[in-house]
Amino acid sequence: MHTLEVKDLHVSVEDKEILKGVNLTINSGEIHAIMGPNGTGKSTLSAAIMGNPLYEVTQGEILLDGQNVLDMTVDERARAGLFLAMQYPSEIPGVTNAEFLRQAINARRSEEDKISVMDFIQKLDEKMAILDMPEEMGERYLNEGFSGGEKKRNEILQLMMIEPTFAILDEIDSGLDIDALQIVAKGVNQMRGENFGSLIITHYQRLLNYIVPDVVHIMMDGRVVKTGDAELAKVLEADGYKGLMEELGIELEATEADK
Ligand SMILES: Nc1ncnc2c1ncn2[C@@H]1O[C@H](COP(=O)(O)OP(=O)(O)OP(=O)(O)O)[C@@H](O)[C@H]1O
Ligand SMILES: [Mg+2]
User: Fold this and answer.
1) CB-based burial label for 192 (10 Å; 0-12, 13-18, 19+)
2) How far apart are CA 185 and CA 210, in angstroms?
3) Does residue 202's CB lie within 6 angstroms of at least one atom of ligand 1?
4) What is the pTM of this model?
């Protein structure tokens, strides 16, 4: 079993504290969902886990199987088995989707164990078929000119090709049509297994009907304020954040530290 532990994580962007002590443990085999109002720090959490240098960790720890992730570069984190599907995937002109995927797969393998061209093509065809993606998407430059939904689907293609240990999926459902949502969910569900764990950031309960999470966290103002099972997302959908805040007695006024 593998574990990804986030302990008392504080993260600042340009000297403003965004995460104010996040605690979270994901075991492989589990899918966690994280929900929360806009601007509460969900994408900041994912950026900090992946090692985006804009996000400064001022306190706390991130451990992958007990190993300190904060000392690793982005590349090292990816090789160690972390993966992030970004909320806004970047376009990389000049690098085809297939080239990118082959390099990403090989980066996680030793010199003697590189994937053969044949095996790669076979795997790519198989995963693209599952995701109902047209063949030419492989030869297009990475994300360049992809529609919003195509980008999201392509993030799941990367997930299925790279087969990370832990995947953070940041709003993988935004901008997807109804059929695409089910296809993307199918891709994530195929990844489920004892050697895979995921943190799914979403605003909508709808995705969680297709990818049923083991654990749901609610994040507000830079902290995880409530953790529960899949039912929690349904309660939230019904009551909204305002209802939840009242229940928890939370006031989201600026604290001394914010001023
Ligand atoms: N690179 C950055 N530069 C400046 N401010 C940032 C940066 N990244 C995040 N922030 C700020 O940090 C706060 C949290 O942003 P974040 O993107 O983590 O929110 P979120 O919970 O993912 O919101 P959403 O649901 O809208 O995606 C926001 O106030 C945002 O403006
Ligand atoms: Mg976000």
Assistant:
1) middle
2) 6
3) no
4) 0.93
Tens-digit pLDDT profile for residues 151-189: 999 999 999 999 999 999 999 999 999 999 999 999 999
20-49 in b/e burial notation, b at 16+ Cβ within 10 A?
bebebebbbebbbbbbbbeebbbbbbbbbb
For ligand 1, pick from 9, 14, 42, 236 the residue to mutate: most ligand atoms within 8 Å of CB.
42
- Bridge-based pairing of strands 55-64 and 3-13 is antiparallel
Q: Examine the pLDDT at 99 and tell me if it is beyond 90.
A: yes
pLDDT for 250 beyond 80: no
Sign of the torsion formed by the C-alpha atoms of 107, 110, 114 and 119? negative
User: What pLDDT score was predicted for residue 7?
Assistant: 98
Q: Any idea which residue has 């806004």 for tokens?
A: 88
Q: Is the CB of 41 under 6 A from ligand 1?
A: yes
Calpha distance 63→4 (Å, rounded)? 6
Ligand 1 close to Cβ of residue 46 (< 6 A): no
User: Are the C-beta atoms of residues 75 and 104 closer than 8 Å to each other?
Assistant: no
Lookup: tokens for 5: 């532990």
* 36-47 average pLDDT score: 97
CATH 3.40.50.1240 fits 3-94+165-258, yes or no: no
* 249 DSSP 8-state letter: T
Domain residues of the chain, as ranges?
A: 3-94+165-258
**What does the mean pLDDT of the chain come to?**
94
Helix/strand number for the chain, H first, E second: 8, 12
